[in-house]
Amino acid sequence: MLTRKQHELLMFIHERLKESGIPPSFDEMKEALDLASKSGIHRLITALEERGFIRRLPNRARALEVLRLPDSIAPGLNAARKFSPSVIQGSLGQGGLGRQIKPAPSRMRAAGNDDDLVATVSIPVMGRIAAGVPIDAIQHQTHSISVPPDMITGGTHYALEVKGDSMIEAGIFDGDTVIIRNADTAQPGEIIVALVDEEEATLKRFRRKGASIALEAANPAYETRIFGPDRVKVQGKLVGLIRRY
């Protein structure tokens, strides 16, 4: 039995993972639940973890996984399978957590289950994206990767390799591969690929400041950059990521 606040937090984390594949920050959770301090969020997360609804992934800041939902929300679903966010943990051919990502095959075996074949979709990797100081605009495909079809939500998708640490508090680390759905508009708070002055590409959270556009980092070491609306073009939205160990 969950308290009202525990239930609200669980569903907020669940919905955020469904939307972006990235867990919310403690500040976002505090604001969503209208709590006065982060200590209240820590207590709620501990309670949810003790009750088996979520799991904190070790050695990673802000990494949360929803293991199950209340039966009142998804009756019978929890017994059949666990909820899995759109984050793939690649093990580079070694046994490990998550589903293995291999370079190109059209089908792959799910880790830990040799009997089940999982169909995959191939998408192009279009070079690197800066999570830090912007780099040259994305232009050319470098190679392709295979991802589970449930990571692709409709529309055109591509992948980018992350360079830098400006989005670490959004759970995006240097060396991750982000999955992007092609788009030319965004809602405030969404993580986007932004093209600045037709020259530089960067991965940042999209905000509006009056008539201007703010590209917000998720690392206090980086400043939010503000541009006129004619200087920034949305190139796509983050829908998931792949992390290799």
Automatic annotation (TrEMBL):
GO terms for biological process: DNA repair; DNA replication; negative regulation of DNA-templated transcription; proteolysis; SOS response. Residues 2-63 form the LexA repressor DNA-binding domain. The active site is at S166, K204. SUPFAM superfamilies: LexA/Signal peptidase (SSF51306), Winged helix' DNA-binding domain (SSF46785). It catalyses: Hydrolysis of Ala-|-Gly bond in repressor LexA. It comes from the Bacteria. The record marks A131, G132 as: Cleavage. It is an enzyme of class 3 (hydrolase). CDD domains: S24_LexA-like. Its EC number is 3.4.21.88. GO terms for molecular function: DNA binding; serine-type endopeptidase activity. The keyword DNA repair applies. Residues 124-239 form the Peptidase S24/S26A/S26B/S26C domain. Pfam families: LexA_DNA_bind, Peptidase_S24. Keywords: Autocatalytic cleavage, DNA damage, DNA repair, DNA replication, DNA-binding, Hydrolase, Repressor, SOS response, Transcription, Transcription regulation. Homodimer. Belongs to the peptidase S24 family. Represses a number of genes involved in the response to DNA damage (SOS response), including recA and lexA. In the presence of single-stranded DNA, RecA interacts with LexA causing an autocatalytic cleavage which disrupts the DNA-binding part of LexA, leading to derepression of the SOS regulon and eventually DNA repair. This is LexA repressor. It comes from Mesorhizobium prunaredense.
